[in-house]
Amino acid sequence: MRKIAHFLSTISLLLMLTQSAQGASELPTLGDATSGVVSAQQEHELGQVFLKMINSQVKTLNDPELTSYTEALIYRLAETSELQDRRISLVIIDSPQLNAFAAPGGIIGINAGLFLYAETEQEFASVVAHELAHLSQRHYARRVEAAQRQRLPSMAALLGSIILAAAGGGDLGAAALSSTIAGMQSEQLRFSRFNEQEADRVGIRNMARAGFDPRAMPKLFERMSRMEGSGPQMEFLRTHPVSRNRVADSLGRAEQYPVRNYQDNPSYHLMRMRVIVESSSSPENTARRLTADLETGHTSYPFATRFGLALAQLESGDTSKAANTLKPLLASTPDNVYYRILDNRIRFAQGQQKEALANIKEMLRFTPDNLPLTMTYADMLFQDKQYTAATRVLKTFSRTRPDDPEVWYQLAEAAGKAGDIEEVHKARAEFFFLTGNFDDAIKHLEYAAELPGTPFSTKTALKERVTEIQEYKKRMKL
Fold it and tell me: Taking CA atoms, which of 150, 205, 329, 451 is between 20 and 30 Å from 284?
């Protein structure tokens, strides 16, 4: 019932936002982001509201290493895409289902399950390129134009359905999406199929420009088509139907590009292994399986399997085995940041806290503001009960990633342990704002302003932030 209530409230809110964005009856030509039924700026604002709802209603995967890798891949593809507004926000959904989506305003959503089903970085990139193409061709704005002609709130309904599907709404999300599509006329259905074909075409072209194998898209589509109907893990196929014609069309377009020797980024396979280990309910069982894979040679990427084994062994508390397992990887590639982070996590768990902290701090000296290194350092400081130092690190980092809810959440936790009440309230306020809880955000800012001894300049800044949030609520009709 709570999911249904969330869905209905989401639909109502998105419908209001969509209706407020509708103006002129003509859309600009492709790539023109200056005017139309929904302007690029209106799409961005709508997307930010949608992102706040995702953050508040859906379980996300807050893994700094996974986030850093995926963001880098998205920006690599964005650089060669037709996307004009490159303000992109990533959200990784903690779900084993194969799914990905794009939402107005540069929102890219990826289920952790995509790492499990995409066997290579090329295949993973093909899904990202497809979703970026939806954004660059402004398909959501065009859906509003089509819906306006038919007096249908399709954009709001589809966004609400995405939230349900991402939240693991399963059949409820599918039913909501099906009823939305069923309410559209045949012209709108053809419009949707055209969008998918266009996203394939533009995505394949973008993959080739970015140095990825365009043939990976039809290869993944063909494998997914064989799995169609195999269960709820294939949620992607409900929103991105894969027909034989679509596979053939994408293959024909990909074959127009010359054959090259494409090399996968080894980091993809390390991140894929992180998802496998983190999604396991028993790290001990995962360690046994990965050990068997290494011993029998039943692995295409032994380095990734070894990395996953060391990670599983650390998760199960067997730090000695984890250190021995990781040792050959460190010897072969001593500068690999993922190996070094894991190595120092193992050292920290073995009681070598001072050495591990010094190692991570030294790495940060050469790559300041690195997401996985910074969050690892702050986490180690927190575990070592150096709460004031952890607060200082996260407070500085929040200026680099002001729109990352996890940074603000961890900052509030560290500040609380450090006894910095003002910082607790300010961090919680930003966390609540980014997760759509505007009333609590305002309350915490007011609490901070009322603390005894708060300087006048700080009170003024806090009151200005309250005003900003109030004006945001009013502008976005929240």
Answer: 329
Q: Are 109 and 88 in contact (CB under 8 A)?
A: no
Averaged over 400-409, what is the pLDDT?
97
| Catalytically annotated residues | 131, 200
Was 298 annotated as part of a binding site?
A: no
Confidence of residue 152 (pLDDT cuts 50, 70, 90): very low
Residue written as token pair 């790559």: 367
| Residue 423 marked ligand-binding | no
Q: Give CATH 1.25.40 domain extents, the chain.
A: 385-478
Count of beta carbons in the 10 Å neighbourhood of residue 236:
22
**pTM summary value:** 0.85
Q: Are 126 and 207 in contact (CB under 8 A)?
A: yes
Is 134 flagged in the annotation as binding?
Answer: yes
36: left (phi over 0), alpha (psi -120 to 50) or beta: left
**CA–CA gap between residue 58 and residue 55 (Å, rounded):** 6
- The one-letter code for the residue type at 189 is L
Q: 385-478, which class in CATH? A: mainly alpha
State the pLDDT confidence band at 246, using cuts at 50, 70 and 90. confident
